[in-house]
Amino acid sequence: GYEILPSSAYEAQIEWFKEHHDFVMEREWLSYSPSVVASLGCAIRALSEVDDEVIVMDPVYPPFYSMVRDNHRRLILHPLHQDDEGVYRFDIEKLRSQITSKTKLLVLCSPHNPIGRVWSREELVELSGLCLEYGIVIISDEIHCDLVYPEHKHIPIASLSSDVCNATVTLMGSGKTFNMAGFSISTVCIADETMRKRYAEEQHRLHWGDGALLSHVAFEAAYRHGGEWHQKLLYRLDENRQKVVRAFENTEIRVNAPQATYLAWLDCRALGMGNRALREFFVQQAGVGLSAGISFGREGSGFMRLNFALSFEMLERALEKITHALENLER
Ligand SMILES: Cc1ncc(COP(=O)(O)O)c(C=O)c1O
User: Fold this and answer.
1) Residue 86 φ then ψ, to 5°
2) What is the CB < 6 Å shell around ligand 1?
3) CA 111 / ligand 1 centre spacing (Å)
4) Within 13 A of 207's CA, how many CA atoms are on the CB side?
């Protein structure tokens, strides 16, 4: 019953990326992985040594930190900061100052969970230019690339130029696009032959195989026939996104419409609560369990992350409960 992911499934994903992201991948660049986080760990192990430095932006999806630490690499945190409009940015000069001879990898989240940023072409050019200058490999987790709202466009960092492509490992998955996380299937794209060989050797040491037939069929079917469903999904998520922004308009919670993802990053700092109290407020007073911002890193202190990939009715209920609890908050 062992199966291999058939070429037709890879071809379906290649066609999707050509059509949706103007990114042309070759079949041999791609390989199967059971999960994006597993590929991240494998790439870290394959492309750096113990005690090498890995740059990660803060706040970010927590396994970025644990994959670096648990594989005994040094975590170099780059704090993202909000500009006057509340848009998160990295600071290229600060990044430059954080690089040492031990810095081997930069892990990018593009689009970025939890802040919902779609990095612009200019930002990606700047970031990749710096990495090329210092010989740093970019590991770009692009699992949220298909959940981008109409006014923005996702640019795969590897599509910028052949030089950047050869310095990048792109982690890709159907888990978010088609809500298929339970199918344990994703892919990794590595154009550079030497890096691909190192990654493949590490993967063989882990012996994770090629997954299950049902996942292979689902993966191919989703990329081949899921276009219309995906359009409808984006439309529904956009409605929910706007609903979330409107709900907090006249409250002390500040929220910018995410440019991508189904995640709203709620700035609750004006409530003046510690992280534990903030979490308890949402659970005990509002009856809604959100993800605590602090679990995404130090820069997430005072924030909460709300997943709005819900039915309209359930989202409405959750928002009503939160705004009601805010109104009744004793000061
Ligand atoms: C940025 C990011 N990467 C990876 C994952 C998980 O992917 P997988 O289940 O394929 O490991 C998530 C899920 O939330 C995510 O937000």
Assistant:
1) 85, 10
2) 35-37, 61, 109, 113, 141, 143, 173, 175, 181, 186
3) 12
4) 2
Tens of pLDDT, residue by residue over 80-110, are 999 999 999 999 999 999 999 999 999 999 9
**Backbone angle region of 309, left / alpha / beta, with phi > 0 → left and psi within -120 to 50 → alpha:** beta
Of 116, 120, 61, give the one whose Cα is nearest residue 261: 116
Which ligand 1 atom sits closest to the C-alpha of 173?
10
Cβ neighbour number for residue 144 with a 10 Å cutoff = 25
Whose alpha carbon is nearest atom 7 of ligand 1? 36
Domains of the chain: 7-225 (3.40.640.10), 228-327 (3.90.1150.10)
CA of residue 264 relative to chain centroid, distance: 14
Percent of the chain with pLDDT over 70: 100
Cα 64 to averaged position of ligand 1 atoms, centre (Å): 10
Residue 126 confidence class, pLDDT cut points 50, 70, 90: very high
Ligand 1 midpoint to CA 331 (Å): 38
